[in-house]
Amino acid sequence: MIQKMNTIQFDINLLVRDNVKGLKPYSSARDEYVSDGTDMVFLDANENPYDNGVNRYPDPQQRNLKAVLANQKGVSAHNILLGNGSDEVLDLLFRAFCEPKLDNIITLPPTYGMYKVLANINNIEEREILLTENFQPNVKSILQATDVNSKIIFLCSPNNPTGNSFSEEHILQILESFKGLVVIDEAYIDFSDKNSWIAKIKEYPNLVITQTLSKAYGLAGIRLGLCYGSEEIIGVLNKIKPPYNVNELTQKRALERVLDIDQVTSEVSSILNERANLVKELAKLEFVNKIYQTDANFVLVKVDDANLRYDQLLEKGVVVRNRSTQPLCQNTLRFTVGTQDENIKLIEVLKNI
Ligand SMILES: *Cc1c(COP(=O)(O)O)cnc(C)c1O
Question: What are the distances in angstroms from CA 71 to CA 79, 215, 218, 285?
Answer without folding.
Answer: 12, 21, 21, 46
